[in-house]
Design goal:
seven-stranded mixed sheet; binds 5-S-methyl-1-O-phosphono-5-thio-D-ribulose; alpha/beta; Rossmann fold; 18 strands; four-stranded mixed sheet; 2 domains; globular; about 20% strand; about 375 residues
């Protein structure tokens, strides 16, 4: 993504070649600031506090967290401790467990003296692969947008609704749900995006709007409750969202509120697509509702809002009645039956065991592979 005339990935190495730089997403859209991570503890805290967020970027950051740990101490004990520390940061996005599992498999058999170098190169590979996967998702999703555009009057705008942030900022580059939108815009297809604000942390209003704006894609931020109304009035041609964990049967965990959008889309005959790279598939699960762990985050994210105050400072204010309790489940599960299709790096498939097995025959029925 180009920001201020410069191309940025969301994670990269500092000029010293070992520290890890990320964009502080808690400061966006008001401040573009980077944070330099120099320990596994700092990487874990960046994930926990959502300086970095989004399933693929969480995985990439954890991989570099292991590299930072191996540079400090490449012993077996330090490796196990780093994997445990980073693995405990956030529970829902399976990319975290996937990336740490991969780092562990690569590093454990090695002589400790070789671990740091190998950890950095494996983390870099995970990042490069993520960029390629997202680019492919974009190309397959572009086909879907093209076919929806073809059903409309010549030159008519395709209106796409998205929830949360599943763009460049949630991945290493391009994004999942937003990659097809960027490619469609670049290909000259007129697209307009309805951006759900995505309470309580407002990833839509703050992050999706920021990056769509940076890329020049026309968009409108809406309150989370507006999507159903817009669908009833024919203002939404399709929905595309990302996912933090998709079961082998096509159930989809994503940011809280996604399920309600899927219900509204189903009721109104609006196609509801989920874009995902294969590391987001949890091949060991078949029942998303019962088996996917849902992160419960701080009540303060519900009771307080943060934003740019008139004095130019980013401030937090309370919006909930003092003394009231607040609950904050951060994700929900959309059953496969409400999903029109899964857009993956290998193509688009039905959200079902058969659909996923058709695209990934080597993985289907092999949860531990
Ligand atoms: C490619 S990103 C898919 C999901 O990770 C994204 O939609 C999402 O729910 C992010 O949640 P977050 O809590 O901001 O990490």
């Amino acid at each position: 993504m180009r920001i201020n005339g410069q191309h940025y990935r969301t994670i990269w190495l500092a000029p010293d070649g070992w520290r890890v730089c990320v964009i502080d997403q808690t400061r966006l859209p008001f401040r573009f600031e980077t944070v330099t991570l120099s320990s596994a503890e700092a990487a874990a805290e960046a994930i926990r506090s959502m300086i970095v967020r989004g399933a693929p970027l969480i995985g990439a950051t954890a991989a570099y967290g292991v590299a930072l740990a191996m540079r400090a101490d490449p012993s077996d004990t330090a490796l196990d401790e780093a994997l445990t520390l980073l693995g405990a940061t956030r529970p829902t996005a399976v990319n975290l467990r996937w990336a740490l599992g991969r780092m562990g498999r690569v590093l454990k058999p090695l002589d400790p003296g070789r671990r740091a170098e190998m950890a950095y190169s494996e983390a870099a590979l995970i990042c490069d692969e993520d960029v390629a996967l997202c680019r492919s998702i974009g190309e397959h999703g572009l086909g879907v947008i093209r076919s929806i555009a073809a059903e409309k009057a010549e030159g008519a705008t395709v209106n796409i609704l998205t929830h949360c942030n599943a763009g460049w900022l949630a991945t290493v580059d391009w994004g999942t749900a937003l990659a097809p939108i960027y490619l469609a815009h670049d290909a000259g297809i007129p697209v307009h995006v309805w951006v759900d604000e995505t309470r309580p942390r407002n990833q839509g209003a703050a992050l999706t709007a920021y990056e769509l704006g940076a890329h020049g894609v026309p968009h409108t931020v809406i309150a989370d409750n507006a999507g159903g109304h817009l669908m009833q009035h024919g203002e939404v041609d399709m929905v595309i969202v990302g996912t933090d964990r998709t079961t082998a049967t096509g159930d989809v965990a994503n940011k809280i509120g996604t399920y309600l959008k899927a219900l509204a889309a189903h009721d109104n005959g609006v196609p509801f697509y989920v874009a995902l790279p294969s590391p987001t598939i949890d091949w060991s699960l078949s029942d998303g509702l019962r088996e996917i762990p849902i992160e419960e985050r701080s009540a303060r994210e519900v009771t307080h809002l943060s934003g740019l105050a008139e004095d130019g400072e980013v401030r937090s204010i309370r919006v909930v009645a003092p003394g009231s309790n607040a609950a904050n489940p951060a994700f929900d599960v959309t059953p496969a039956r409400l999903v029109t299709g899964l857009i993956t790096e290998r193509g688009v498939c039905e959200a079902s065991a058969a659909g996923l097995a058709g695209l990934f025959p080597e993985r289907a029925g092999r949860p531990q592979a």
